[in-house]
Amino acid sequence: MNTVKSTRRFDSRLIQKPRQQPRLQRTAWGFVTLAFWGFYFYLWAPLVTLISWLLGGRMAWLQLYEYKQAIDPFIIIALPVMLVCTAVLLIAWAEYNRMRFAGKERRTPHEDTTRDEIARDLGASPELAAQMASGKAVTLHMDDHARPVGVTHQLL
To answer: Is the pTM of this model over 0.70?
Structure first.
């Protein structure tokens, strides 16, 4: 009885781990791929052109590029009017909000936390809290249970 071993042949054209390729090689193959995608889209250009011309692309081309010296009176009047209306609307909205919120505190005031509350929440003594508050920049030393035990003042 013959047994046939099933073996997989390694195909060197397949990349099993692309991140192990050199960066230059990956970048070069990326540009090759980009070039072929560009060529593929170039092949579709005649069909896209035909469809756009059937849907009015020819008329858009004439209006935008062929009638170069024609002046549309609607555009000459409408653009400045839209500009002025937009500016007036923006200024009116800003002034409305300035009058609406002028002199009013929108945030509710919070009471300051006392030094004793901070010391209690940190698990430190009030003396240590006073030392921390007295310095501009301090290093806090902690014990093995993450409780403050000392302070070193830094010179700035």
So the answer is: no
C-beta of residue 148 within 8 angstroms of C-beta of residue 124: yes
Backbone torsion region of residue 138, taken as left when φ is above 0, otherwise alpha when ψ lies between -120 and 50, otherwise beta: beta
Residue 7 confidence (pLDDT)? 54
Domain residues for the domain of 50 are 20-69
Along the chain (156 residues), what's the average pLDDT of each consecutive run of 10 residues?
Answer: 54 67 89 96 92 82 72 82 96 94 81 86 86 85 87 82
CA 80/CA 153 separation, integer angstroms = 64
Tell me which H or E stretch contains 150.
strand 148-153
The total number of structural domains that make up the chain: 3
DSSP string, 90-127: HHHHHHHHHHHHTT---SPP-PPPPHHHHHHHHT--HH
Q: Are residues 77 and 54 in the same domain?
A: no
Q: State the DSSP code for 21.
A: S
